[in-house]
Amino acid sequence: MSAVDTGPDAKSQRELITPEGVDLRLRIGSAGERAAAFIVDMSILAASLIALTIAIGLSGVAAELRGIVAVIWLLGAFALRNFYFILFELGPRAATPGKRLLGLRVVARDGGRLTSEAVFARNAMREIEVFLPLTFLLGSTIAGIDPVGGWVALLGLAWTGGFLLFPLFNRDRLRVGDFVAGTWVVKSPRERLSIDLLDAAEAARERFAFTPDQAGAYGIKELHVLEDVLRRRDPKTMAAVAERIRGKIGWRAATGETDGDFLAAYYAALRARLESQLLFGRRRKDKFDKG
Amino acid sequence: MKDLQLKSQRFRAEREADWRRLEGLLAKVEHRSASSLTDEELLAIPVLYRSALSSLSVARATSLDHSLVDYLEGLATRAYFFVYGARAGLRQRITRFFSATWPAAVRGLWRETLAAAAIFVVAAALGFWLVWQDSGWYASLVGEMAGGRDPAATTAALRQTIYEPPPQSIDLTVFASYLFTHNAQIALTAFALGFAFCAPTAFLLAQNGLSLGAMMALFVTRDLGVGFAGWILIHGVTEIFAILLGGAAGFRIGWRVAFPGDRSRLDAAAEAGRAVAPVVAGVVLMLVFAGLLEGFGRQLIRDDWARYAIAGATLVIWLGYFYLPRRQASA
User: Fold this and answer.
1) Are both B201 and B271 inside the same structural domain?
2) Which residue among A23, A221, A287, B318 has its CA within the 20 to 30 Å range from the CA of B124?
3) How confident is the model at residue A2 (pLDDT cuts 50, 70, 90)?
């Protein structure tokens, strides 16, 4: 991978080359995000099931309609358990409500289109990943009276638990369903285009004249940190960072100079210098990179 | 126009309108659907997508505005999924599933289907033979499925279980939907278990075969064999076929995971999963049908010949639908 891939993102970043030959650099959803999305989805499922049951219970159906109601409940529970995930993942956003909340989506690993076969396969596998362990878990609590049944259930739980924890044992966080369906779950990018910090620095620019040495004290990594600081606009951090930079480049603050203005102007100067180096084919990674 | 200092700033000013337009169109697609776009907008997306990709390449090479590069990556990725994603309508997908995908997927699994059938038949024969030798085996083979159909029952009672009309208290629709959900869950499990190198699937198939054989032996010893076979087969042809297909799908996955051949294990599993997914979806549909036959047909049709006729007809229909050669559907 190229030199840009530093920072915490590099480990979760995967290549997806479009037919046009550009790498889109997808980011794999972390195990925590996947688990959280799943918990949200399961809560929605459980809540709908309980709501369905209560609605049926409260409606106080006449005896002759009880059969129909039982059918609705049975089929409704079946449909929820099996089709909730499938229908949402077939939609244009390829994500269940839980995944959407966590900013995830399902993608075909080969970068091709996400087929209905793949979605079906990855969700049919949930049977052994979630529902079978659950059955054993309930089984082992209920089977308390029968010691042999309890041990069998415990063994079963240990065995099927392996399927449940499968995502923790591979670096792409594939669960068994992803493995079989040829899919993976990636961060769904939903960044908004924020203002260019250079525009904000426009006004401050005239008042600060940095020498080439001062403007060239840092590299790209530091530039990005500075960008984050400026976008967050936390006064304490800005003060600390401004002090560090002033110390490093030997800048004496003029009277009435705010940290915000100083940082914005320094950002503009540093970026201008690094970008002009880029145009000459030199990418200065960080402040230790002397080329 | 203000004076822009950096190339990256000018670059952004020149292209931003296009990015915003693409972003707006994508939001429309993601919130509603592709059909909410006009023809003109639909045609604009691929063009805008390619220009966003080229912007991304330029930005990576020349701009150090991190948030801009992130934004373009996200924009290009969303557009990529739209441009290269599946946009077949639901109705199209469904028609295609029934006319081509499902039967073709079943045909592709013929080897595994034969293996699953062999396991089932051998297990049934074994169950039959064991109970024939010693009815003591019955309890351990059939288990709780028996519902009063056990060697201790009188012949008259056994006859009653297969010919008598159901008691009024049982609602047939409830019964049918219970049977369907229960069996469908078993078939899905049989498929999913294939992942564990086939063994649990084989076990599940064998267990079902054994208990069927054992029950058959019990009824044959009471001269009720013909009646029992009719009672089972009226829905069993569909149901057993469905479970065999579910098992076959599991076998394919387990086999490809265990022996990926010259592919990587990851690719082999993904290929197998996609090949068998339509079979499993179809299995669920078959079980809806079997549930209806079992819940209604079997209880309401109590003539042996009629039961055999339905069983035979369903067998011919399924075999014909899946295995009759047909013209290659043009893509």
Assistant:
1) yes
2) B318
3) very low
Residues B104 and B73 placed together within one structural domain of the fold: no
Number of domains making up chain B:
2
The reported pTM is: 0.78
Residue at a domain's end among B87, B110, B133 = B87
Residues B217 and B288 in one domain: yes
Residue B73: give the domain boundaries: 7-87
Query: Per-domain residue ranges for chain A?
Result: 8-125+175-187, 128-167, 197-279
CB atoms within 10 A of CB B38: 8
For B300, counting Cβ atoms within 10 Å of its Cβ (0-12 exposed, 13-18 middle, 19+ buried), the class is exposed
Query: B12 vs A196: CB contact, 8 Å cut-off?
Result: yes
Q: How far apart are CA A84 and CA A86, in angstroms?
A: 6
Reduced to 3 states (helix: H, G, I; strand: E, B; else coil), residue B270 is: helix
Length of chain A: 291
In a domain, B66, yes or no: yes
Same domain, B61 and B202: no
Substitution target in A1, A24, A187, A199 with the highest count of B β-carbons within 10 Å is A24
Residue in A109, A126, A271 closest to B64 by CB: A271
Q: How many CB atoms lie within 10 A of CB B144?
A: 6
Distances (CA, A) of A152 to A133, A145, B145, B211: 12, 13, 20, 21
Share the mean pLDDT of chain B. Answer: 83
